[in-house]
Amino acid sequence: MRLLIATDSFPPKIDGVSDTAATVARVLGQLGHTPRVVAPAPGPRCVERAQVARIRSLPAPLYPSCGWGGSSTGWFASRGRGGTGRSC
Fold first, then answer.
1. Ordered DSSP codes for 42-63
2. Does the N-terminal peptide bond of residue 59 adopt cis geometry, omega within 30 degrees of 0?
3. pLDDT band at 69 (very low <50, low <70, confident <90, very high)
4. Which Gene3D superfamilies match (predicted)?
5. Which of 40, 44, 43, 45 lies closest to 56, judged by CA?
6. Contact at 8 Å (CB) between 37 and 2?
7. Smallest Cα–Cα separation from 86: which of 56, 42, 49?
8. 67 forms bridges with which residues in the sheet?
9. What CA–CA distance (Å, rounded) separates 24 from 38?
10. Distances in whole angstroms, Cα of residue 52 to Cα of each of 18, 23, 61, 62
């Protein structure tokens, strides 16, 4: 099953949310699923064997290490609707 994880925090950022999201992606992959992640840029395009779409984001006023996301329609057009994309 193909699954999408959308998160505001993902490695290389170090916190509980990013650690949990990466663990979920890893376990889903181990169970035979195809996890895909949408997370703020910058960062690697592959984490825990899951493809990661990095989107531009703006700092949140009261929480600058967290961002408000933008669009990544190019990634979804080539990978999210039936395309295989690059494997990790």
1. SS-SEETTEEEEEE-EEEETTE
2. no
3. low
4. Glycogen Phosphorylase B
5. 40
6. no
7. 49
8. 59
9. 13
10. 13, 14, 25, 26
